[in-house]
Structures are given as C-alpha cells and as structure tokens.
Amino acid sequence: MYDRRKFISFLGKASLGVATLPPFLTSCGNTTTPSEKFKQIDEKNLKRLKDLVIENLTASDQDDLLLANGLNYHTIIKWGNKISDSDSFGFNNDFTCFIPLDENNPNDGLLWVNHEYTNPLFVSDFNHGQYDNPKEHRTIDQVDKEMYSVGGSIVRVKQENGKWKVVQNDSHNRRLTAQTPISLNWDYDVEGKNTVIGTHSNCSGGITPWNTFLTCEENYDSFFGETVYDENNNPSHTPSMYGWEVFYNYPPEHYGWVVEIDPKNGSAQKHIALGRCAHECCTLYELEDKRVVAYTGDDKNDQHLYKFISSTPGSLKEGTLYVADTDNGKWLSLDWESQPILREKFKDQTEVLIRVREAAKLLGATELNRPEDIEIDPITGHILVALTNNYGKNDFHGSILKVEEKDGKFDALTFKASTYLAGGEENGFTCPDNLAFDLSGNLWFTSDMSGSKMNKEDGPYMPFKNNSLFVVPRYGKDEGKVIRVASAPRDAELTGPWFSPDGKTLFLSVQHPGEQTTDLKSPTSTWPFDEDGIPKPAVVAITGDLIEKMNQLRQIES
Ligand code: FEO
Ligand code: CA
Ligand code: CA
User: Fold this and answer.
1) Does ligand 1 come within 6 angstroms of the Cβ of 377?
2) d(C-alpha 375, C-alpha 490), whole Å
3) With a 6 A CB cut-off, is 299 part of the ligand 1 pocket?
4) Would the CB of 218 count as within 6 Å of ligand 1?
5) What is residue 222's three-state secondary structure?
6) Cα 85 from chain centroid (whole Å)
7) Is the Cβ–Cβ distance between 537 and 79 less than 8 Å?
8) What does DSSP say about strands 301-303 and 368-369: parallel, antiparallel, or unpaired?
9) Whose alpha carbon is nearest atom 1 of ligand 1?
C-alpha cells in the first residue's frame, strides 16, 4: 500500500498540499487515505491562506541576507566548520536535502549538502589572477585542498528551541570529496574502470522513493577537461579550467553523472543509465508498479531535457533513457539497439550514454536555454523546468517551462510543452534556477544571475540587483504573482531550497558570497560577518510566521 507520508517525504521539495484529492494522485494510483497525522483541510485554513499578505522586497544590492516580514534565519553550518574530528564542511554549498531519521520526528535527521565548486583564492591560497599561466604555478597540496572542498556533506541536524544545530561527531557525519572512490552502477567499465575516483561539480540533486540522496555532477569539464571528437570521430582532450588533470590523470568520462548516496553509510554509486552531461538535478517519480521515472536537465546552452523510465521496480540501471523534442512533444529513445542512427555512430549503449549530448542531437532533440532545476507540481502533476538563460540566443532572463505528460502518465512518450512563467523586468525576476513546492503547493524559486554580470550599469540585470528567492502564491489576491522574499549577499546565489517535512523550515544555501573578490584584504562581501571578514558559503534555516502560514493548508500534527 502506498504510504502517503513516504510519498510526501519523497517529494520533499514538492510536498503535497491540496484542498481535495487531485486527479494527479488518483491517476497515479495514490488513492490511499491521507495520513491521520495531517491536519484536516478546512475552509478556514484556505481562507487564511487566501488572505495572507506577503511583503514583496524591493531589489537590493546590500551585502546581507535580507528577508521579507515574517521570515527570519539562522546559520546551520558554514564552510570550514568541523563536522567530526576528521572532517569539515566543504565549499560552495548548493543542493540541500533533509531526511528525518525517524519519520515521526521532523526535527531530527540527516542533511545532505552539495559542494559544487571551489574558489582557490579562499580554499587553497592560490590567486589565478596573478599569473598568465596559472596552471604552471600550482602545487599538489593546493589541488588536494581544492579536491577536498567539493563533493558533498552528510550532517546530522537537530532542531532544539527553534534552532537547527549540527550534531558534532554523529556517526552519520561524513564527507564525500573529489578523492572518494565511487562505484559505477553499470555492467561495463567506463574508460577501463568500474570504480572511479571522486565526485565534483555537484550542483542540484534529488531524493529517491527509497530515501537516498541524488547529487548531480554539472560542470565537470572545469576540473578534468573533456574528451571531444572531430568529424572523423577521433578523440582529443580539451584542458580544464582548474587543471586538476595535471596532477591526477583521471578521465573526463568518469564525471558528468547522477550519483546516489546512501545517507546511512555514505556509500555511493554513479548511474550510467541516466547519461553523461552537465546534470543540474534529478527528479524522480515512482509509478504505481514501483518503476521510477527520472527527469534531468543538461545545464548548458542549447542542450537538452532527459527522462529515464525504468523497466524494473526501483532501478536506475534497467530501463530506457529518452530526450525531449519539445517542439513536437515527443520523448525520443536513446536506445542504441533500436535506433539505427545511433548504431551507425556509436559502438554500443555505453558509448551512447557517455556521449549522450551527441546522441541527442543526432535524434533531433530540441535545444533548450540551459535546463536547470525540475520539480513536479504536487497538485497538477505538471513538470516544471527552469530554463535559466541563453546569451547566445539573446535570452537573458530565462523562463520556466511546463511539461504536461499525455494523460498525466509519467511514463508517457508524448507530452505538451508550454511556457509557465517568463523572466523579465515586467515579471520581476530573471534567470530562474532552483524550484521547490511547499506543503500548500506554493512555488518557491531562486535566481542565478552570473556574479560577473550582476549590478552592472550597462548590463541586462541592473534592475534586479542581487540574486533572490521568490514565491508564487497558489491562492488569494497574489495568486500567480512573483514575489521576492529574500535577497542574497553580494555576488551570492541562493540555492538548494528544501522544506522540512512539517513545512516549518526552509533549508537554503547561500553560495559564493564575495565571489568577485580578487584580494582577500578587500573582499566584495563579508557575509556571514565572521571576525576574520572572509565571506563564507553557508546553509541557513529560514523559519517564521510567513513560512508557517504559507504551509498552513496542510501541516503535520505535532
Ligand atoms: Fe550549478 Fe546549473 O547551476
Ligand atoms: Ca543551479
Ligand atoms: Ca545556475
């Protein structure tokens, strides 16, 4: 029997909150009675939600984390904090995901945090800007520090007296880094290995129905470069930006995958069947027969949206990967066996998956403007995909794409695509990135203007000032409007929004404050205002009256 509570924690960011049982749930087979732990929805709750007044913050370039009335925050953990005697929290935190240890207690659990990339100026005392050929001036110690700063962290966190705190030295606390051995969930080797070294470029992610974390390797080519092929299919290596391959000869093919982490013991595996690209995220949906559907986007200009449908229950290996033709509403199979055009170019399915971008283009997949985060609307079942921007196509403000699967079936091979929200000054937002639904079905999302382009008089982003967090209320007078509820410190991006299971906390990452700093003595940000004056990426907990009211349509009885 489907456990509704599990369904809710599995959706996590997209928890269910509905006034009536929506067709989306009945059509996907989730017809079990809502848990008695959930407060009944009544007209009073709905009316209160409709009457809610939400302050729309004005855009700000202030170096602080500013919040709308009714919200406050405290810092849970920041870069460099010890999590155990042997490990410390990594740099540039992105995706966050919370899983309670006991599903009856939403205040004690494991927080997974991605550490996407590094900044040598802060992490390894190396100033790239000082050298014409920075890679010639590096030491292996510096590279090792950088490799330790990325990957992910598992930390046990508990809420006591309204504040979330890390449980120091808890046995679950651990790091995964660019030097952690990770197995491949595949029957064949990739570049001669079935276990590879490390994960990095961990941008956004997801959660599985069996309560493990997914972390996605996005801009992997920054660290070990990329293998590119000429017109005669001859490979060559394009060097990376960070130059780690000068010290560690790891093949680029070992990165660019969706990685699954078991929170209980930290064991990890890379899912080859989901293809290799700049995965932003991976959003899973469990079908009635326990097969899973995984949506993932390739965050690069003119790249694609993918969907994997498993053929056996709970598998992220057995099944078929598809790529979206959004012009014609078709999922195109990337199966080597049944696609002659793929058989002609690639030697086997493994090669198709390693070079999935080329395979997608051969099939005629639609070029998209940098697909970022993906969430399933818990009320309509529509799939929302943030398309952040594409300067090459003069799309500076991006949009949110809506995908409606045929008959609401997630394993359908046809769909309808349309624009859900378009970025731009008139709509009050630009460059949408991470998405999250709360318990009432309100949509929250963050923006990601590039640090080098923000707050520039002659650029397209001047009116938006610092990156922000927005909410789109589902009910009431502000229904459908985009309201700014948080403004990030200078140069920072707000990432990884994730609601606690009771909807009372929004976990949020503040990533790369002060990223434009070139001299540590005069950083462009000093958030979170430590004595040393050095800016630090950190994970915060946002709580308060407004969050509780936004989530009031359906809350867990405490
Ligand atoms: Fe790492 Fe696509 O943002
Ligand atoms: Ca992102
Ligand atoms: Ca982004």
Assistant:
1) no
2) 28
3) yes
4) yes
5) helix
6) 29
7) yes
8) antiparallel
9) 203
User: Which atom of ligand 1 lies closest to the CA of 94?
Assistant: 1
What separation in Å is there between the alpha carbon of 468 and the centre of ligand 3?
13
Cα 197 to middle of ligand 3, angstroms: 25
| Torsional sign, CA 139, 140, 142, 146 | positive
Half-sphere exposure of 334 (CA within 13 A, CB side): 34
Cβ atoms of 350 and 188 closer than 8 Å: yes
Question: Which neighbouring-strand residues pair with 100?
Answer: 109
pTM assigned to the model: 0.94
143 lines ligand 1 (CB under 6 A): no
Q: Is the CB of 277 under 6 A from ligand 1?
A: no
Give the number of the atom of ligand 1 that is nearest the alpha carbon of residue 204: 1
The domain limits of the chain are 4-117+150-220+255-550
- Does ligand 1 come within 6 angstroms of the Cβ of 245? no
C-alpha 493 – ligand 3 centre gap (Å): 9
Contact 400, 432 (CB under 8 A): yes
Q: Which ligand is nearest to the CA of 297?
A: 1
Counting ligands in written order, which one lies closest to the CA of residue 434?
2
Residue that has been written with the tokens 């003069």 in this structure:
394
CB 90 within 8 Å of CB 151: yes
Count CA atoms closer than 13 A to 213's CA, side-chain side. 32
CA 202 to ligand 1 center in whole angstroms: 9
- Alpha-helix residue ranges (DSSP H) falling in 285-363: 340-345, 349-354, 356-363
Strands 443-447 and 301-303: what pairing?
Answer: unpaired
Ligand 1 pocket residue status of 449, Cβ below 6 Å: no
- Alpha-carbon distance of 254 to 184, in angstroms, equals 9
Q: Per residue of the chain (558 residues), what is the pLDDT tens digit?
A: 323 333 333 343 433 333 333 333 322 222 233 344 455 567 888 888 899 999 999 999 999 999 999 999 999 999 999 999 999 999 999 999 999 999 899 999 999 999 999 999 999 999 888 888 888 889 999 999 999 999 999 999 999 999 999 999 999 999 999 999 999 999 999 999 999 999 999 999 999 999 999 999 999 999 999 999 999 999 999 999 999 999 999 999 999 999 999 999 999 999 999 999 999 999 999 999 999 999 999 999 999 999 999 999 999 999 999 999 999 999 999 999 999 999 999 999 999 999 999 999 999 999 999 999 999 998 899 999 999 999 999 999 999 999 999 999 999 999 999 999 999 999 999 999 999 999 899 999 999 999 999 999 999 999 999 999 999 999 999 999 999 999 999 999 999 999 999 999 999 999 999 999 999 999 999 999 999 999 999 999 999 999 999 987 765 555
Q: 4-117+150-220+255-550: what CATH class?
A: mainly beta
Burial class (CB in 10 A: 0-12, 13-18, 19+), 510: buried
Sheet order of strands, 305-310 included = 283-286, 292-297, 305-310, 319-325, 330-333
Residue 22 has phi, psi (to 5 degrees) of -75, 155
Using alpha carbons only, give the angle 79, 83, 85 rounded to the nearest 5 degrees.
120
